[in-house]
Design goal:
Elements lengths: L4 E6 L10 H12 L5 E6 L12 E4 L4 H12 L2 H9 L4 E4 L1 H4 L4 E3 L5 E3 L6 E18 L3 E15 L5 E5 L9 E2 L1 E3 L2 E4 L10 H15 L11 H14 L2 H7 L2
Parallel strand pairs: 1-2, 1-3, 3-4, 4-12, 5-7
Antiparallel strand pairs: 5-6, 7-8, 7-9, 9-10, 11-12
Bound molecules: glutamine.
Glutamine binds next to helix 2 and strand 8.
Length: 248
């Protein structure tokens, strides 16, 4: 019997916008459906997170104020996080959590909230907020869909998670969304991300299983409901006349 996969949800008391905890539920359930076990640790803001204790870490989205608190907490163990990421720790960071992976997030008043400096990346708050449904194309996982709502414009020279098909992405200008670096997955996509994107959920799970040394190759699941949710999203995304034109 394999040991459970250790998943940490960092600071769910501060960073949990748009049901980001649905990502954790999805990861856990997709393991259970294959007879595997997840041990989920909720690390609250009064606790110290130790990257060496986990096989997969999730950092969600939050408001600017909450991001500042999380930045102060996380930066205390910044060197440990840097070493773990360089060593291949799988890390999924969404929106505010994604911004914290970089050098800084510059607030509308010009103040810079320092990031963890795990990636060569900066974010600057701008106007208007970039809001709406988003679809991107990823080399690793095909089309990824969801919702974005961020004031920050992020720029970096790493690979993106995907190229924008519709929506804004990292900054509304360069056509890139999110980041891929080693086993880091950063994105602005909420809603939450993983229930609607099973290929990405499984890709992240397989990455974490491999990192943990758990010898399992994930077999595909049925995913009928997930596919129906994605189809509903695609139909909403198209304008009604296009839908009508395709209806016999
Ligand atoms: N505060 C950040 C921004 O608006 C992140 C918001 C979020 O996590 N949705 O850019």
């Amino acid at each position: 019997m394999n040991r459970p996969l250790c998943i940490a949800h960092l600071y769910p008391d501060l960073l949990n916008l748009y049901a980001d905890k649905g990502n954790i539920l999805t990861l856990k359930r997709r393991l259970e459906w294959r007879g595997l076990e997840a041990q989920v640790t909720l690390v609250t803001s009064s606790e110290e997170a130790r990257p060496g204790d986990y096989d997969l870490v999730l950092l969600g989205g939050g408001s600017d104020r909450e991001q500042e608190i999380v930045s102060r907490t996380l930066r205390r163990s910044r060197d440990e996080w840097k070493a773990a990421v360089e060593d291949g720790l799988p890390l999924l960071a969404v929106c505010g959590g994604y911004q914290l992976l970089g050098e800084y997030y510059q607030l509308p008043d010009g103040t810079k909230v320092p990031g963890l400096e795990l990636l060569d990346m900066v974010t600057v708050a701008g106007s208007p907020r970039l809001i709406g449904n988003v679809a991107i194309e990823s080399d690793e996982c095909g089309t990824i869909v969801g919702f974005e709502n961020h004031g920050g414009r992020t720029t970096h020279h790493h690979a993106p998670l995907g190229k924008v098909i519709s929506g804004h992405g990292n900054n509304g200008t360069d056509g890139h969304e999110g980041v891929r670096y080693k086993n880091v997955f950063g994105t602005y996509i909420h809603g939450p991300l993983l229930p609607k994107n099973p290929a990405l959920a499984d890709f992240i799970l397989q990455t974490a299983l491999d990192y943990a040394g758990i010898d399992v190759k994930l077999e595909p699941l049925d995913d009928e409901l997930e596919k129906a949710a994605r189809t509903a999203f695609q139909v909403r995304r198209m304008n009604l006349s296009e839908v009508a034109a395709q209806t016999p």
